[in-house]
Amino acid sequence: MGDVCSCKRDYYADENITRRGFSGRYFKFGSSKWLESSLFLPAACCQFQRSSCPSLMELCIRKICEDIDKYRSFTMLPRDISQLIFNHLVDSCSLSDNCIESFRHCALHDMCMGECTRVKDKWMDVISSQGSSLLSAYISSTEVTDFGLSLLSNCSNLQALGLDCCDRISACGIKHISGFTNLTYLGFRKCCGLSAEAMKSLSSLMKLVKLDFERCPLIHGGFIHLEGLTNLESLTIRSCKCITDSDLKPLEGLLNLKELQISCNDITNAGASYLRDLDKLVVLNLEGSDVTASCLDYLTAFTSLKSLNLNRCHLTDDGWLTKLESLYLDSCRISNDGLAHLAGLSNLKALELSDTEVGSNGILQLSGLKKLEDLNLSFTSVTDSGLTKLSGLTSLRSLNLDTRQITDSGLAVLTVEARTFEFHRHSLQYFLVDLVVRFRDFFALSVAIICLTGLTHLDLFGAQITDSGTKYLSFFRNLQSLDLCGGQLTDAGVRNIKDLTSLMLLNLSQNLKLTDTALEFLSGLTSLVSLNVSNSSITNDGLQHLKPLKNLRSLYLEFCGVTACEIKKLQATGLPNLARYRPNQ
Fold this sequence. Notes:
The protein is of the alpha/beta class. Strand 6, helix 9 and strand 7 form a beta-alpha-beta unit. Helix 3 crosses helix 4 and helix 13 runs antiparallel to helix 14. The longest helix has 31 residues.
């Protein structure tokens, strides 16, 4: 049967790094941001099944997992089947001390524990029993010790290893990692046991391509041990509060680096200057660093740079790069005048202006960014009238308007010409020639705005949208994610979005007037993967309307009249794919 069911090792080395999301400043349960910060799970665990009819294999896997306590060992099964069973248990958070033993000596390729934090040294013994077959392992647990890590010495072919939150692993235990010479990915996120001294053990891992030290507090001074890792293409040291400018000096010789995630408060222009020779960089994240506009002088030579995150940096309106595809300026002191410098960024595809001083007058400066696909204007002073200046951005697919100045009128502005075109479409069949000749300018403007209704992601989290305004959403037929959490919606407003059948993520939280009828209107949105209706008036009686949503994996019903017991019944009888839910608290 081969390895078709095994998750890919390149999951750990995301090739699409030019568009990957950076840490969001504002967290919202169940919003489109959830998709960007999805769990660190194998690819096989994260694929959503859009089909309403599961395959025979899927049904068998589900049944086995339901009756998992009946099985003592899966060694007699083909490896790919055992892998699917394991992945399903991980995905449904059903791994336990008893069932993990069933996978001893199954020669699995991948043992990625996902969100499971109960991993113990006993589990590590089961992982190590996979021997040379094991290619990737991900553990996030505070209970694994040096002894547990030492057990992995049998797994000589490991290519990817993640050890998050493993605070009981010390420098002594990390020495065992030096024997995994085939590693291409290594992660130590949020590990207090990783110190500068322990980093010596990594110097022999010459095949490393991706290294992740996010939120490791004790690694200051250890980067000198990475100088010889010349194959390294991705390094993450985000939110490592111990990092200073001197830690960046050993990186200046890592000339193959394509992705560098720093995001440390104590990095200044002096530290950024050590990066000047890293001309292969595609992604650079300096979020929250103490750099100023003068550091851009070092970066202008980066001809490959496509994504630059300068969120919360000390930037003003001076100076930009010209070949960027992504620019992140969250919480920078950028004003309308500063946006004039964006005029030459003709390749820009993603622009983050959240929490800046940009207002409606500044939006006009964006009109030349014809390739722009992703625009974030949340927490700015942009108003309804400013949205008229977005009409020329025909490539736009994701728009964040999470700001209280946006109202129903703003949505009307985005669709006004589209609605006019729809109104005249019937007449067009009879008076085509006359209409085109007499109203050709109007027709061209209409087509431009219609392209804007090709949005796939629309965030109106804090916008003041009422039931009346939701009628304009019917023109956004391609929407896959939508946030409407301004608190003014009733069931009548939900009725107006019931035909947006491409929706996969829908956040309607904070709308207290929503009742069980709202869920009835949503029952036809069968592509939904995540639904958030927290802080509403929905009760247990309304859960029956969710049964057609077979693809639903996440359901948020906090501060509603819904109990955990009833959600579990729904999961067991109608929504087998539901893996996460938050009932009333």
